[in-house]
Design a protein that fits this description.
The structure holds five protein chains of five kinds. Chain B is mainly α. Chain B has five helices and no strands. Chain D has one domain. The chains are: A mainly alpha, B mainly alpha, C mainly alpha, D mainly alpha, E mainly alpha. Chains in contact: A-B, A-C, A-E, B-C, B-D, B-E, C-D, C-E.
Chain lengths: 625, 154, 232, 88, 488
């Protein structure tokens, strides 16, 4: 029994146990222990994987219809597995205390979390294309199950997700079947060996089908519409887990199949006719659009959860762009961004759900001034948005800097501009988030709101702390990234504890953060000590235009937060992609109605007559009777 | 080409024409008229046409009927097999016809009409909402709400 | 006019279909079909079965399963028709006895038709006709009195017993061979002297079963369609 | 023989046309019986006495009776009490 | 090794014999007649199980009826394929034995006749004999379709009858063409003669006629217009039998015809086109179906289309895939129809169903997942087999068909999960939740669901068995060699 067997068995048993007994009040604690052990197991696997060629196999290898299904985890899968179990640990922690006590369907929440972990581990350790597809379907349906928990809205969003995911899965299915038909095997190694011999048309087909299939899960534009609502309407910790990990499965699969098996180099040799672009650049531009468009859509959201999940889509674009640069720096940047994003996005989502837990709403028009009521939540959220915006001293800055730098190094100025535009949009919208929830005037109905309980605060603060720590010492994260990078066959990035050391320019976060803290400390010193500003102003102690304002007058500016931008973006907001989706649905319905009507016709032998006439005509075509 | 062969060919043309004519007229009667009895008659015609063709296939000029009178084989006989098949087909046909007519009687009973389209509409109306209706309700099917439910539901 | 549209469309397709069928049939030259099985049967039928009517020999011996299937179809149809009509109201023209002539004629016809039907059935293996044709006449024999006097119901129990027993008899005769290690429907009792009434082994018995079954089923069917089915 | 066949086919097609196009259903049923009779003549011409006999007895006789009984039962027979004639 | 076990005729004549005698017993009392019917059903199953022990290892049984050597006489031919579908038929009919309807024992009689006729249909090795048994099955199914005693049932049965009888007449025309061209009706004999006498347009025309004729019951496009009507109007159990079992028997016949007689690209293309059109039409129509019954009716059209597509792939594995789809559908769809038969009415009214009857809702989801083809359910492996073959076929047209099937899968998931999702919702507005499901009524579904779950664990052995079976079925020479030793 290998470590991988142990890991999978553990998560499977946990799933079964939690589905049966998840209503017990200690389910969250049990989950924490299990996921901690699982994380430990994953870490224990690191040894043989470090050189990039090793893999931890599973002894479970059923033969199905003549195909041996195999599971074995390599460095790439290991990287994402660590992410998965870690995220599950924090999610479970979040659910272990007061949250757990108040939820109506704990069993489902704990059970689906465990199920998702199991399915993801299965996917991440898939050893051939068939087990990859099976894992892929498992992950899709497990996520679907998680998303439907709350019914009605959530079920509709999940349903939409499911249709997208299934369409993507079918594309993947088609692709692996084509591979099987062409090379006669589902094995990774065989595909890798056969790629150079494939025709360009076939490569395009595989690129398109795999890209589409995995891209749907990553929510790349234009297949992104499902993600925000589906993730947003999932309860608390589940939502955070989905945000942090679920879409990354798409990235994993793209890295594995397009990056490792087919090879990004192969893709850059696939030239488009007429326009000077190759398959890889095409995908990079898709990633760039995914960075920009959803970010600005996020800006328009009035629901805190939706705002964050729309950002999640955009952040996925950064990761994809980074790994597609395919230099040591770019790959490391993309992979590091996965970890970084997971830490701050989880902290953010958990913080927002803590606010919902206390106030009952995530509507940005209905909140405000909670800074004094929920200061630690505020702190977690503040650290999170700094990371999300990609500013020092948080880890988001490091990975984004590396992405910019890799684009600069590979001379892609247009993509660099797109990345900057995306970051700009992020900064604008995260300010909206923190302002509308925590700053400004406290609403009357929130006077009695208290701080989130410790069981919820701890995970988000720790996550934010991780974000800060890996911002301060990026080497911690880069060490983990190395394993995946080695497995991908990309040269390792030279790095130290403080950052990356390149010939073209280095980044040492210890200096950056050190200087920053020093400067801020100096500023604070000047402000508070020399400037003698030692007292705070009461939250209701406000006036405007010469009038004192009492708490019942709303002066907190939160509705239509960016009117100018809104006018600019508005026309795009429900734009072509939404129309496309609608059009597809309408077309499908119309076609369905047509066929349905055709079956209701009263003169059924007529079809027989027509079919007979046409069929006989066709039969007589070659040569006559 | 001998006279006999010409004659056989002419006979073949006549018979094939007859068979095709019956099949086509029967198909027409099954497709165009809406009265169910007429459709049943059309079915009868198609069956007859097919039977005629099948017997014609087994014909052989200047051969005797496949009945060996006197217990001896005298010269060639026409193919007995298609005849046996057609005999079977005729009996099958009458069985199906009887059941069809029984259903016609019953449809008239319960739907009050023998117009194919009206029957179809009434059926759609009936099955639109619930499944088992009291059977002693001739002419039922006026359930308008059920029909509405069959219409477009977004 | 919608109706005309369909008529026109149907006519167009039918003309096309007719042309195609004509071309198709023309590929089978009349009178020259290969019919190898038919001819082979015609040669061996008499010695193998002892029946002079080759069609009957085929129906009962070579393709006996077809015949079983065929009477079964009639049985299915009769059962289904009985089921369909069992809840129906009575026919509309019930009750009024027919005129004198029909009544008298039916009285005279009954024994005549009965005898004719029986004759055709039992000579099926020798001369044209057989279980089906005879059965149809038997059915008429039982049905015409019903038309003449609707008040005298066809005795359904008798019909049903005949129907069931004759069907079972057919299968029993066929299955008898199974116990001898032969295949189902293997003719029994040798071939006899061709041309005689008691020849062709078990074929006349089978034909008798078929005739009775067909007769009772057709009579039952007609009675049901006529509105007598309510009680069966 | 061919003459007989030709006449029978003509009668048959004519009757079949009547089955399809004649207005009254009773007439159509009668025409169907005529089709069967002509068909049975054709079978006889084709040296299929068994089939001819069966067609005459079953096709023309029984089927016709069944159809007529049905028409009477559904009120399409002209004489039936509540019938509205045999118009469709 | 060929066993000449003449008992092979028993699955055919046993039910027929019982059916002939059943009305007499029913005359005395209803319950002994019903008991007799079910006992014969069990006996049939026992006989079939015994036959399986005879053919399970790859042997075949040929019985020349009447002792007349083929091609003069009729032969019954049992190989693994025939016995497998006999088994499906037997089990299906036992599971869905009709309830006691107002027609006394007639429904039982018809069911027995369906059993006997269906057995003959798969066993027969003679083209016209197949037609006769097909007619028995057809007429019995008309009767059963009307056995609900509801107004819609009569109308649906009549319209079904008219279409089906027309199809049968055309099939007979096809048989006439085959006989006229080849001069024989024995399938093995035809198989030998077909390359010479039935190739080209004549064979194609005959195949077209036969497929359109037998396709009525196999729900093939475009002769499947009766499906939604009948499946909605007929009693649930009848629907389950018709959709689950009877349609497959016709597909088996079409497979035999295709493999033995019409093994040319034209016929394969024809079947592919009809099957694909069925998939598209069925899934799209199901997407807009107003109630569960119609949804499943259309979905079963699509599934039968898949079977046709699979059979049209000129490869043994295509046949294996087709059999797999057929058997899988035969297990899954009846279970779903039981649910649809209880929860009638518009789909929108399904809200709250899961709360009312959780086992039913869960069974619905599991069966739906399998039918969509989600791993690890058997349906996935079935689809893998089918699509793997489609994409591996030499003709790129099959890859296109595979793409269409994949797209149709998404539509299929859409309508099945729209319904499933609704079940977990509270009732809409002031609608009442659907009626609670008595466990006794749900029992067949639960049995079938269990079967599906068990099959999950036996995918590999089942797949190997299927492939062996397909290799046997797909090789016309084996059939001919068994029926007409010395001809090949």
């Amino acid at each position: 029994m290998s470590l991988l067997d142990l890991l999978l068995l553990l998560s499977l048993l946990t799933t079964l146990y939690l589905y049966a007994f998840g209503n017990h009040r200690n389910a969250g604690h049990l989950g924490m222990v299990v996921y901690a052990v699982a994380t430990g197991l994953v870490i224990a696997m690191a040894g043989p994987l470090a050189d990039g060629t090793g893999a931890v196999g599973s002894t479970f290898a059923p033969v199905m219809l003549g195909h041996v299904l195999s599971w074995s985890m390599d460095g790439l899968g290991w990287f994402f597995a660590l992410l998965t179990t870690g995220a599950a640990f924090f999610a479970s922690w979040y659910m272990s205390g007061e949250w757990n006590a108040e939820q109506p369907n704990k069993r489902i929440q704990h059970g689906t979390l465990a199920l998702n972990v199991f399915c993801m581990l299965l996917l991440l350790s898939s050893g051939d294309l068939l087990s990859l597809f099976i894992g892929w379907e498992f992950v899709s349906w497990a996520a679907f199950l998680m998303m439907t928990q709350l019914g009605s809205h959530a079920a509709r969003a999940a349903f939409r997700y499911m249709l997208y995911a299934l369409a993507g899965a079918m594309a993947v299915f088609a692709a692996i079947l084509i591979v099987k038909a062409q090379i006669g095997s589902f094995a990774f190694a065989d595909l890798r060996a056969a790629v150079p011999a494939l025709s360009d048309g076939l490569k395009w087909l595989l690129f398109g089908l795999f890209g589409l299939g995995f891209g749907v899960k990553m929510a790349i534009v234009p297949f992104h519409l499902w993600q925000a609502p589906a993730y947003s309407f999932t309860p608390g910790a589940s939502s955070a887990f989905l945000n942090a990990v679920s879409a990354r499965m798409g990235l994993f699969a793209i890295l594995l199949v397009l990056g490792k098996l087919i090879g990004f180099a192969t893709l850059s040799d696939l030239a488009l006719p007429l326009i000077p672009m190759d398959a890889k650049t095409l995908l990079m531009w898709v990633a760039a659009i995914t960075m920009v468009v959803p970010t600005f859509i996020a800006l328009m959201q009035t629901d805190a959860r939706m705002l964050l999940t729309w950002h999640g889509i955009g952040q996925g674009g950064y990761m994809l762009l980074g790994v597609l640069v395919a230099t040591p720096l770019g790959t490391a940047a993309g992979l590091m961004h996965v970890l970084n994003y997971a830490s701050y996005q989880m902290a953010l989502v958990l913080a927002v759900f803590a606010v919902i837990h206390r106030t009952g709403t995530a509507d940005l028009d209905e909140l405000g001034g909670l800074i004094k009521r929920m200061p630690f939540t505020y702190l977690a959220l503040l650290m999170g948005i700094i990371g999300l915006a990609g500013l020092p001293p948080m880890n988001g800055f490091v990975s984004k800097w590396m992405i910019y730098k890799s684009l600069l190094d590979t001379q892609q100025p247009l993509l660099l501009i797109a990345a900057f535009v995306g970051t700009l949009g992020t900064i604008l919208s995260v300010y909206k988030l923190i302002h509308n929830i925590f700053l400004g005037q406290l609403r009357a109905e929130h006077q009695k709101v208290g701080e989130a309980p410790g069981s919820m605060l701890a995970p988000m603060l720790i996550l934010a702390g991780i974000g800060f720590a890996t911002g301060f010492f990026p080497g911690l994260a880069l060490g983990v990234v190395d394993v995946a990078q080695a497995a991908l066959g990309v040269e390792l990035l030279p790095h130290g504890l403080g950052g990356v050391y390149l010939a073209t320019g280095s980044l040492n976060m210890i200096w950056v953060v050190g200087i920053m803290i020093g400067a801020i400390g100096f500023g604070a010193f000047v402000f508070y000590v020399i400037g003698n500003r030692r007292y705070g102003v009461h939250q209701f102690d406000n006036y405007a235009g010469g009038h004192f304002l009492s708490a019942d007058i709303r002066y907190h500016f939160s509705h239509e937060f960016y009117p100018g931008l809104a006018r600019l973006i508005g026309p795009w907001y429900r734009g072509s992609v939404v129309n496309m989706e609608n059009g597809l649905m309408i077309g499908l319905k119309t076609a369905g109605d047509l066929w349905h009507g055709a079956f209701r016709i009263a003169y059924t032998p007529f079809y027989l007559l027509v079919a007979l006439a046409i069929g006989l005509w066709w039969a007589g075509l070659d040569g006559g009777f | 080409m001998t006279d006999a062969m010409l004659l056989a060919e002419a006979l073949g043309d006549v018979l094939y024409t007859g068979a095709i004519g019956l099949i086509l007229l029967g198909l027409y009667a099954m497709v165009v008229p809406r009265h169910l009895v007429r459709i049943v008659l059309g079915l009868l015609l198609v069956q007859s046409g097919v039977n005629l063709f099948l017997v014609a296939v087994g014909y052989r000029p200047e051969a005797a009927a496949p009945i060996l009178l006197g217990g001896q084989a005298i010269g060639p006989v026409v193919d007995p097999l298609p005849q046996a098949l057609v005999l079977t087909a005729i009996v099958i046909g009458v069985g199906v016809l009887a059941l069809a007519l029984a259903l016609v009687v019953r449809v008239k009973d319960v739907h009050g009409t023998l117009d194919s389209r009206e029957v179809a509409e009434r059926m759609a109306a009936e099955t639109g909402d619930s499944r088992l209706m009291p059977e002693t309700a001739p002419g039922r099917g006026a359930a308008v709400p059920a029909r509405e439910m069959l219409e477009d539901r977004s | 006019m919608k109706g005309y549209g369909r008529a026109v469309a149907a006519t167009i397709f039918l003309i096309g279909l007719g042309t195609l069928l004509a071309a198709l049939f023309a590929a089978l030259p009349f009178g020259q079909a290969p019919m190898q099985v038919g001819q082979a049967t015609a040669v061996v039928a008499l010695p193998e079965t002892g029946a002079t009517n080759i069609v009957s020999a085929i129906l009962l011996a070579y393709r006996g399963l077809d015949t079983l299937g065929e009477v079964t179809i009639l049985f299915v149809a009769a059962t289904a028709a009985g089921m369909v009509l069992s809840g129906a109201g009575r026919g509309e023209a019930q009750g009024a006895p027919a005129g004198f002539i029909l009544r008298v004629a039916s009285g005279l016809l009954f024994p005549f038709l009965l005898a004719l039907g029986a004759f055709i059935v039992v000579h099926g293996h020798l001369t044209p006709g057989g279980g089906f044709q005879g059965g149809a006449i038997l059915a008429a024999a039982f049905f015409i009195p019903l038309l003449a006097n609707p008040a005298s119901p066809l005795n359904h129990t008798v019909a049903m017993v005949i129907e069931g027993v004759s069907g079972a008899a057919f299968i029993a005769i066929g299955a008898a061979a199974l116990f001898g290690g032969e295949a189902f429907l293997t003719p029994l009792f040798g071939t006899g002297t061709p041309g005689e009434l008691f020849s062709a082994g078990s074929l006349p018995l089978l034909y008798l079963a078929v005739g009775l079954k067909v007769g009772s089923e057709l009579a039952g069917l007609m009675a049901r369609v006529a509105g007598e089915g309510g009680r069966a | 023989m061919i003459e007989l066949a030709l006449i029978s086919v003509l009668v048959m097609i004519g009757a079949a046309l009547a089955v399809v196009f004649v207005r009254g259903l009773m007439a159509a049923v009668a025409a169907a019986a005529v089709v069967s009779l002509a068909l049975s003549v054709l079978f006889a011409v084709l040296r299929a006495p068994d089939v001819a006999l069966a067609e005459a007895a079953v096709g023309a006789g029984l089927s016709g009776v069944l159809l007529a009984l049905t028409l009477r039962r559904v009120g399409l027979w002209p004489g039936s009490p509540s019938g509205d004639g045999d118009r469709e | 090794m060929i066993g000449t076990a003449h008992q092979i005729v028993l699955p055919v004549v046993l039910p027929l014999l019982a059916a002939f005698l059943l009305p007499l017993v029913g005359r005395l009392h209803v319950w002994p007649a019903r008991l007799l019917g079910q006992i014969v059903g069990v006996l049939h199953l026992a006989v079939v199980a015994y036959l399986w022990t005879l053919v399970g290892g790859g042997e075949t049984i040929v019985s020349a009826l009447g002792g007349f050597a083929p091609p003069l006489g009729i032969v019954l031919y049992a190989d693994r394929l025939s016995v497998l579908f006999l088994l499906v038929l037997s089990v299906g009919i036992l599971l869905f034995w009709p309830r006691r309807e107002h027609g006394g024992t007639r429904a039982d009689t018809l069911t027995l006749l369906l059993l006997g006729g269906g057995s003959g249909l798969v066993l027969s090795g003679d083209l016209f004999n197949i037609f006769v048994f097909y007619e028995i099955v057809a007429v019995a199914s008309y009767g059963l379709a009307a056995s609900g005693g509801n107004a819609a049932g009569f109308g649906a049965a009549l319209r079904y009858l008219l279409l089906s009888a027309l199809g049968s007449a055309l099939a007979l025309l096809g048989i006439a063409l085959v006989y006229g061209a080849a001069g024989t009706l024995n399938l093995a004999d035809l198989s030998v003669l077909a390359p010479e006498r039935l190739s080209g347009p004549m064979g194609l025309a005959a195949f077209l006629l036969l497929v359109l004729g037998f396709g009525v019951k196999a729900e093939l496009f475009p002769v499947n217009t009766w499906v939604p009507e009948v499946y909605t109007a007929a009693p649930t159990r009848v629907t389950a039998i018709l959709a689950g079992v009877v349609s497959k028997l016709s597909m088996v016949v079409i497979l035999r015809l295709l493999v033995l007689i019409f093994a040319d690209p034209g016929a394969q293309t024809l079947l592919l086109v009809l099957g694909l059109a069925g998939v598209i039409a069925g899934e799209l129509a199901a997407f807009r179906a107003p109630d569960l019954n119609r949804t499943f009716a259309f979905s079963s059209i699509a599934q039968l289309g898949l079977v046709a597509v699979a059979f049209s792939i000129p490869d043994d594995l295509g046949i294996a895939a087709g059999i797999a789809v057929a058997v899988h559908h035969a297990v899954v769809k009846p279970g779903l129809f039981v649910i649809a038969g209880h929860w009638t009415g518009p789909i929108e009214r399904l809200g709250g169903a899961a709360r009312v009857s959780r086992p039913a809702a869960i069974a619905f989801v599991l069966l739906s997942l399998s039918i969509i083809g989600i791993p690890p359910f058997p349906g996935f492996w079935v689809k893998l087999l089918l699509l793997g073959e489609a994409f591996a076929a030499v003709d790129p047209v099959y890859a296109l068909a595979g793409a269409v099937i994949l797209a149709a899968t998404v539509v299929e998931a859409a309508y099945l999960f729209r319904a499933a999702a609704l079940m977990w919702e509270p009732p809409e507005g002031d609608n009442r939740p659907p009626a609670a499901f008595p466990l006794a009524r749900l029992a067949p579904t639960l049995v079938l669901t269990l079967l599906i779950l068990l099959a999950m664990g036996a995918v590999s052995p089942l797949g190997e068995a299927l492939e062996a079976m397909a290799a046997e079925v797909g090789d016309a020479a084996i059939y001919v060699g068994n029926v007409l030793p010395g001809r090949i």
